[in-house]
């Protein structure tokens, strides 16, 4: 692998916020995520945004005060969730917050359209992943097919899960292959242990990945049915190791602790490796591991703890707020 350097561009927060967290990146270099205030932390109230290089982020309208955009396809469609209040009784305080799965539809004149489309009227959940055929996956166990202004919902038949597990899809490619993981909350909340199992639905059939591992998760895939994630051979609190699967065949990415999060059509993989008490955003390519901080412009002192997304042009979303573009 030849040494490749990167230019780096910071994504600034929306007005009235001071933090930003990007989640999705498409092949046009567009980024989606949420902007929030540091004192509420990343799980607090925030606003979904869309961003493209050289511009200010644009807020994606939602139904309430809290929203998050999680994925974007090459058509400019964006999915995520928005929080709204619903009445549960007749009293003044009889209201609860619900998370609603949302689609912001791509538009040739305006990518994406900032008007949200509610994917479910009553169910509480989130839209998590989509492909370029406008197939959307979400929770709980939901699948939508969008065509023009119409939408068809169908139940996503989950894998054969152990008792107490819930399935979370993390990706769907243009062939309709689905990946994700199931999880069961800790039986002892004080331990913090959670069981995870990696799954793939390939040509309509579910198969568990890494069945020999105590814990595993599949986090991303490309259109060649190559997928990435992690395995923890010794259990929930043991060291996580980055993993590549080609369809269902495992190909470990080394023995150094870390997580592989995304893979592009060329087989490049991003995620993080852990050493010296911290995470380091990294790239795996051609059998080599590269720490991305080492490929920034000379004199740049910027800690990059994780890389969460990667497109087919080699652009990388790092630490949730920086777009790295390879220098040709």
Automatic annotation (TrEMBL):
Residues 140-167 are annotated as: Disordered. This is Putative membrane protein.
